[in-house]
């Protein structure tokens, strides 16, 4: 005789948990790709050209300071990236 409880456990619980794990893995991969694309965007001025030139330096520095971002001795690209992250980007 076959123990139907074991079959039910495998069919309902175990396979369901495997589905959750795979779903979580896919979500993690998607999030990692987005983070990588975000980081690559700010790697150089050429890739983030439009965003870094959108703000005059004075407005950018003042906005960053108001947001609590340290600006002294930092590259404009780094400041824009941190400001973008703080404002909900990525």
Description:
There is one protein chain. This protein has helices at residues 4-41, 49-54, 57-66, 76-86. The longest helix has 38 residues, at 4-41. The protein is built from four helices and no strands. The protein has one domain (7-86). The mean pLDDT is 81. Helix content is 72%, strand content 0%. With 90 residues, it is mainly alpha-helical. α3 (57-66) crosses α4.
Brief rundown of the structure:
The protein is mainly alpha-helical and 90 residues long. Helices cover 72% and strands 0% of the residues.
User: How many individual β-strands?
Assistant: 0
Low-pLDDT regions: none
Please work out how many helical segments DSSP would assign: 4
Structural class: mainly alpha
Count of structural domains: 1
**Percentage of residues in strands:** under 5%
Fraction of residues in helix? over 70%
What is the CA–CA distance across the termini?
56 Å
Largest sheet: none
**Morphology:** rod-shaped
Which value, in Å, is the CA radius of gyration? 23 Å
Q: What is the residue-mean pLDDT, rounded to a whole number?
A: 81
H/E element order: HHHH
Descriptors:
mainly alpha, 0% strand, 90 residues
């Amino acid at each position: 005789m076959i123990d139907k409880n074991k079959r039910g456990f495998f069919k309902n619980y175990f396979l369901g948990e495997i589905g959750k794990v795979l779903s979580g893995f896919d979500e993690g991969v998607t999030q990692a790709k987005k983070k990588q694309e975000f980081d690559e965007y700010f790697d150089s001025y050429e890739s983030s050209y439009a965003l870094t030139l959108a703000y005059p330096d004075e407005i950018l520095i003042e906005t960053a300071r108001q947001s609590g971002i340290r600006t002294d001795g930092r590259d404009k690209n780094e400041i824009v990236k941190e400001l973008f992250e703080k404002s909900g980007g990525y």
